[in-house]
Amino acid sequence: MTTVSEQLSTTTLLRFATAGSVDDGKSTLVGRLLHDSKSVLTDQLEAVEHASRNRGQEAPDLALLTDGLRAEREQGITIDVAYRYFATPRRRFILADTPGHVQYTRNMVTGASTAELAVVLVDARNGVVEQTRRHAAVAALLRVPHVVLAVNKMDLVDYAEPVFAAIAEEFTAYAASLGVPEITAIPISALAGDNVVEPSAHMDWYGGPTVLEHLETVPVSHDLTACHARFPVQYVIRPQTAEHPDYRGYAGQIAAGAFRVGEAVTVLPSGRTSTIAGIDALGESVDIAWAPQSVTIRLADDIDVSRGDLIAPADDAPAVTQDVEATVCHVADQPLAVGQRVLLKHTTRTVKAIVKDIPSRLTLDDLSQHPAPGRLVANDIGRVVVRTAEPLALDAYADSRRTGSFLLIDPADGTTLTAGMAGQAFAATATGEDAAAADDAEWDF
């Protein structure tokens, strides 16, 4: 008989995020998932029942399982990203419940940045609205490979199939034009539990999976070893002790790929080359290490390497540049303007930079580009050109979500201004780019 720990050790992990417009029922869906999958502790359920009675509700409000802030419970909304961890016999889950208000769209960027799947909720009575399109655009921009359209509150439209079909067709066409590789539409009622964990008795016209069944079976890959090998240096270790007088190691977490002893590598941005003399992991010497292991790499040559440098295979090193072209989502209340001086943080490296140009801002209604807006305000998605004071070894975001992403930071107070994705924006945009150019088989996690 296998134990719970043994079962969990053999199951895969899925990171997913929920998003949608205000009052579409995201937190209720999450609460229903946790409740019906028996992932709620007794004391948690009792606390929710108590809070619900205080609000005059007879049945427990399952949304309170994720809305933990006092302001969230008082207003019945989600403000911050709520992370929840749960498991079934088939898979483990890390869930990010993200806010629906326009002013909190930036929090969806946080929640979806590491997600392999996004659940976008739509109120069946309202259909696809601007915030739905914004969340679809963010999911496409962040290269989330799987998107679930959950058409919620089907009980309020008499479980009508034509209502679901029309919403699914509109959203699928929009998301596909952004280059989202896989879209699954599911009609649900989070409040009543229809098609969340158990199949609905009211929608016999729907033959697809429930939300949990899809989450348990959607294929995900955590194999980073096939990606371009990248090792951002976090710390230089030089004990200079009697036991280790000449030890010099470069510590950090392997972002992608694998490194082997004897492999020829290049240190960027300097471009100096060497060979891996040794790899230390957990106090032991190993011949090979792979992402996402934290290790210390020793080089055969005594060359200048410091925090922020990137070690990569000599025959597969990224290009070094001081001109960064990227698509960004602006997350700060203060606008981002042309000529503004910022800090650019990429992996473990932070450099001074200036915003040279903002060529366009994305209009979500028709996916057109508004040219030369001059600045970006909170929740805007646009293209920027940034000039850095020092060279950066940047991959395209399409090739690597880890080494193709960066942050723009206010140098005055350290506020995060913008989340950036280097290179082209979407896998295939509405401007007529060839969808074949998007390598959907190379999603990098």
In short:
The protein is of the alpha+beta class. The chain has 8 helices and 25 strands. A hairpin with a 3-residue loop joins β11 (264-268) and β12 (272-281).
List the helices and strands and how they pair.
Blueprint: H1 4-9, E1 12-20, H2 26-36, H3 42-54, H4 70-75, E2 82-87, E3 91-97, H5 105-112, E4 117-123, H6 130-141, E5 146-152, H7 161-177, E6 182-187, H8 211-217, E7 231-232, E8 235-237, E9 249-253, E10 258-260, E11 264-268, E12 272-281, E13 284-286, E14 288-290, E15 294-299, E16 310-313, E17 320-330, E18 336-337, E19 341-346, E20 349-363, E21 368-371, E22 375-376, E23 381-393, E24 405-409, E25 416-422
Parallel strand pairs: 1-3, 1-4, 4-5, 5-6
Antiparallel strand pairs: 2-3, 7-16, 8-9, 9-15, 10-14, 11-12, 11-16, 12-13, 12-15, 17-23, 17-25, 18-22, 19-20, 19-24, 20-21, 20-23, 24-25
